[in-house]
Amino acid sequence: MGAVRYTPRFERRHRLDVALTRKLGGAGSSFTSRVVLASGQPYTPVLAIIQPFGYDPTRDAFTTDGRPSFVLGAHNSARLPSYLRIDLAARKGFTTRRFGRDMRISVFGQVMNVLNTKNVLTAEPDAFGGNGRELKYLPQMPLLPSVGVEWTF
Amino acid sequence: MKHCSLTAISTAALLLAGCDLTRPSTPLQIGEDRVAVYSMLRAGAVDASVLVVRFSRDLQGFEEGWRPVAGAAVTLSTPTETLVLRADTTASSARCAVPLTAGFPEPTVRAGCYGAPVPGRVRAGGRYLLTIELPSGERVTGEATVPEPLRVLQPEVSDSFPVYERSAGNTAAVPVRWSSARLPARVEAGLVADSADCRLPLDPKVINGNFVSLNVAHGDSALLAVYGAGCSRNGQLIKWSSIPATLTLAVYDSAYAEYATTIGSDQVEDARASAGLRGALGVFAGVARTDVPIVFVRAPAR
Questions:
Q1: Considering only CB atoms, which chain A residues are within 8 Å of B27?
Q2: What is the ipTM of this complex?
């Protein structure tokens, strides 16, 4: 009784996640790629923009301060743009002996979201955006390159 | 065996290089214009009025985003009679006047304002039905029950209160007590100086300088704080010894109590943007006012 049904915030209807790893010559050397493709997550759409009028008992009149207010539709009933992310990583490993000890050194580089797809976490309406009324997006991870070295001794 | 790792992330370099890493905003798509109706039936009023407007989907920022709806057929019914509210294009349609921005001159909204005298006045405890047929074919209906007025126990007529003349800060306190046959849905208190030259703003944290929402959940009393009492004319301070004023206690029905919680919010659910109405945003509700004339007397400087 009184229950409200709505789609969970982080629900995804469809998701394809493929990872491929190819071993290269040399100990611990490899090339890895990962592709994630998913349908958009839900958000609550804007149905209208109003300027709510309130009643002023001292003047017996309705008034408004002119500030806009968004009228929201059914909770989480619209969908954000779909999600695409491709990650690439390469690792080159070798062994050596230094200071009288055997060491294994790996040099690696990876780029997450190599296409710099502008994936979004959620969307918020903004009445005063740079171009008027806008739907602003909160970003997810951008293009994220990194390099590193790893050693074991 | 020990294991160490060192990683350098260069996203900061990309940002410094001016790379755009986030999705640009997109224009907000609004489906359609929305009709809104605003009507408050006041117990004891000699007439009733209804404001019908349409909020434009093209509203931009502080731009005036609504326009009055002319040509609607508006009726107000009680169990025994039906009134036809006609387009009120006279300056007397005070209750349809809407200041676009608080504190600025108030243009009178004429088109979109419908009114009619109510035989025998608006009755406290009366149930009223509203029907609006719009020229576009849309139909709006509403229902409101006008509450009984509060009985004000304190202050009494002509009670006086010491007040300090200060430009800001708490300058006077007015204890208020009331009684009612049933627990009111919402009570607001207003305070207006009888002279247009004088100001008696209430606690600035509240709805508006002139009136405050009182917490009715815990009983039947409140303490009103008056901030910054003073009088001025043409920007010049005026000396005064007392300020006659009117304290107003307004009690609302449950429809307005529900609707009022959404005012001032920058987002509201569709179902809560309308109270007492079907087929439109806005509110159709009832209010009962009790006015008590009181006097503020200048207190000796502290």
A1: 131-135
A2: 0.83
